[in-house]
Design goal:
InterPro entries: DUF6611 (IPR046719)
Number of domains: 2
Transmembrane segments: 78-100
Helix content: 40-55%
Shape: globular
Pfam families: DUF6611
Keywords: Membrane, Transmembrane, Transmembrane helix
Distance between the termini: 24 Å
Strand order of the largest sheet: 1-2-3-4
Structural class: alpha+beta
Length: 178
């Protein structure tokens, strides 16, 4: 269990307001483009991740796009001086990344991911990564999440299933440590 274990629910409230958010993490699908590569990534937060930690992890994930909006507003507000506007925008954008990375420094190393990439050229698709494992783990998470939302399993049972999936994913070695 994660050291800051807090009540998992109101799971139903979270899913009602934000149907694309999952308590356990996210799935990202990148369709094939001009490069002919597609990818599918499963990101699973450590079981017991608090709502605040989940919010910060999600904010860090989207800051690249979302952080550009306030940076552009600052740059537009300081349009009298282009250099000041650019410097202020870069400072705001960079400070957002630094603040979010600092706020998630304890949780980020425990997040586990599995990515499957597929090359769609050369006559037939060639995959890299364990697609069956990714599909099975994603199904397990989605089915158990649905069961928890409908009351067929308890929040504790859901978190135990989530922990099984998290434990199945390979642990990523941390850089700079032997």
């Amino acid at each position: 269990m994660h050291p800051s274990t807090k009540p998992l629910l109101p799971l139903a409230t979270l899913r009602h307001r934000h149907p694309h958010l999952h308590v356990w993490g996210r799935e990202t699908v990148q369709p094939a483009g001009r490069t002919l590569w597609s990818s599918r990534t499963l990101v699973v937060f450590p079981p017991g991740t608090s709502p605040r930690e989940r919010f910060l992890l999600r904010a860090l994930h989207v800051w690249g796009v979302v952080g550009a909006l306030p940076a552009l507003c600052v740059m537009a507000a300081l349009n009298g001086s282009a250099l000041c506007g650019i410097l202020a925008a870069v400072a705001l954008y960079g400070t957002g990344f630094l603040a979010l990375r600092r706020a998630t420094r304890r949780t980020r190393p425990s997040v586990r991911t599995l990515t499957v990439t597929t090359f769609h050229g050369g006559g037939r698709p060639r995959g890299h990564g364990d697609a069956r494992l990714l599909a099975g783990l994603l199904d397990a998470l989605l089915v158990s999440e649905r069961a928890a939302l409908t009351g067929r399993i308890s929040a504790v049972e859901f978190e135990l299933l989530w922990a099984d999936v998290w434990n199945t994913l390979p642990e990523v070695p941390r850089r700079g440590r032997a």
